[in-house]
Amino acid sequence: MKKGIFDIVIIGGGPAGAYLGYLLGKNGKHPIIFDNSHPREKPCGGGVSVLAIEKFPLLNDIPEQKEPGSDMQLISAKGISVMTQGEKCSWTLSRKKMDKFMIDKAIDIGAKLIEEQVVDVYLKDDIWFIKTKKGEYKSRIIIGADGVNSIVRKKILGPIPKRDLGICYGCFATSEKKELSRIKFLNNGQGYAWCFPRHDHLSIGIGLGQLGTKEIKDIFNEYISTYYPDIKIRSTWGSKIPSIKDPHFYDLPCAGENWIVIGDAAGHVDSVTGEGISYALWSAELASKAILANNPKSFDELWRDEYGEALRESCKMRSTFYNPRLLEFTMNIASKSKTLSTLLNERITNQLPQQDFLKKLIWNFPNILKEYVLEKL
Prior knowledge:
- By secondary structure, this protein is α/β, with parallel strands linked by helices.
- The chain has three domains: 5-46 and 95-161 and 245-319, 3-Layer(bba) Sandwich (FAD/NAD(P)-binding domain), CATH 3.50.50; 68-91 and 163-242, D-Amino Acid Oxidase, subunit A, domain 2 (D-Amino Acid Oxidase, Chain A, domain 2), CATH 3.30.9.10; 320-376, no CATH class.
- 35% of the residues lie in helices and 27% in strands.
- It contains eleven helices and 15 strands.
- The strands form two sheets. The protein has an eight-stranded mixed sheet.
- A hairpin with a 5-residue loop joins strand 11 and strand 12.
- Helix 1 (15-26) packs parallel to helix 3 and helix 6 (277-292) runs antiparallel to helix 7 (299-321).
- The chain starts with a strand and ends with a helix.
């Protein structure tokens, strides 16, 4: 490395950027991570899927007490309630503590954290210039792991289109009674409300697949008053989220000769469930392989081969999954079929990608029908 020019700069120290820094550090690289905000309590449910737990054993070392669970109550827009149970447990935990664990692991193994806010990046003579409020830096390779509003993505590809963005609004709260994990589907066919118990508080929120929804606070307040009238709200929050609706979005490159975008910056989030931690870590793992092979551009081939189909199928099925009539019909059957209720649990907790969910649904249809008919008798 020449003086004044870093080899690898990662913009963003959330799970994607921190895990990439950790993986590169394990292999003798010393990336620079720019982030002035992590660790922080990210506005989200804080769910860690079975997929992430099984694929990334490092998560088991997080010292934060995790709330394991396989039971989840699903409620349709019209009030049909189904208690579901998956075969395996997912977790809910504090994102602040998870993110601190990840960034500390990266630093301990050789990454360097610069706690400055990046305000611009540009390429000149095959060198990336990274501007912060305090100065300017240079790097041969740049990684955008800076979330849905990624500066790196905006400068190289343009921002994620508004049609492919959603919005979340919610709170962190405490309750004197033990609450269930609960998801309530909304009657506009655009998303769901949730409550995910953590170790010492609740994450409660609304996720909608479109921007500009003025009623989101009203929907949130109605959800709170109906199911959680006695909670004590610590804080409220709102944020944009990737919510990809056009499968052609995934035709766009996520890498070039000397750049990569990963995680939310790449839009790599399950379009049905909104779950992104699995793909944040997965994209970081594949980005590390591409960089260590001295071929950042190969990241595109890697992610499309390993999970590109899952993202596309989820995107294609989003409108069908949230179709209000179909969802009511599905919930009605699930209330009388343990097989279908289990499949819904496994899909929503990302144990099953969309294509596997559909295959198992078709394969188990005779048994689902049998359970439904016997329950009706």
